[in-house]
Amino acid sequence: TELVEFMRRNPDVGAAGPRIVLERDPEVDQVRELRGVSEPRRRLALTGAAVMTSRAALTATGLLDENFFLYWEETDWWQRMRLTSFDVAYVPTKGKVIHSVGATAKRMSGICAFFMVRNEFLYRRRYDPPIRGLLRALGDALYSIPATHSNFRARVRGIAHGISIWIRNPPVQY
User: If both were cysteines, with which of 9, 23, 105, 168 could 112 make a disulfide (CB 3.0 to 4.6 Å apart)?
Assistant: First the structure.
């Protein structure tokens, strides 16, 4: 009800997210900077675990892009909403959504590592200036490798596939 009322009062908001807490500690908000927040806030991004969107935003931006399987799909969606003049907002609801962070990743770790890396290249290709975007995606991917020796090969495949996408595809303009 709180999200519905907020969306009705704020037609310029394309998506609103409720309070999301960690399964391992249901009293802790998942997003650090939102801990203790008691008023709605406009944000650059929301956690994709739970979100309400307006019909107007869906019409203007479309659904989640299937090219972003598993990771970065909501980040792309929020960016498309902003590009079509919609904001995204966090609404500190009385009720809370319990998020089992990483539950999918535990079952599919190699696949997750591949898509996490590859999809950042796809996102950066779409929205960042060419050289900066490529260097940022490559830097993030290389930075994550030493910390995660397991899935090393999947991450390297993600880098290779991401660079291949970068070279073969012109950036998409929205």
Answer: 105
Could you give the residue ranges of the DSSP H alpha helices within the chain? 2-9, 55-61, 73-83, 103-107, 109-127, 130-147, 152-168
Neighbours of 54 (CB within 10 A): 19
Three-state secondary structure call for residue 173: coil
Phi-psi region of 62 (alpha: psi -120 to 50; beta: other; left: phi over 0): left
Half-sphere exposure of 29 (CA within 13 A, CB side): 19
Kindly report the pTM of this predicted structure: 0.83
Q: How many CB atoms lie within 10 A of CB 153?
A: 11
Tokens of 166: 């970068």
Q: How far apart are the first and last CA of the chain?
A: 32
- For the stretch 11-54, pLDDT in tens is 999 999 999 988 888 887 888 888 888 999 999 999 888 999 99
| Closest by CA position to 21, among listed 43, 49, 41 | 49
Q: Is the dihedral of CA 121, 51, 101, 93 positive or negative?
A: positive
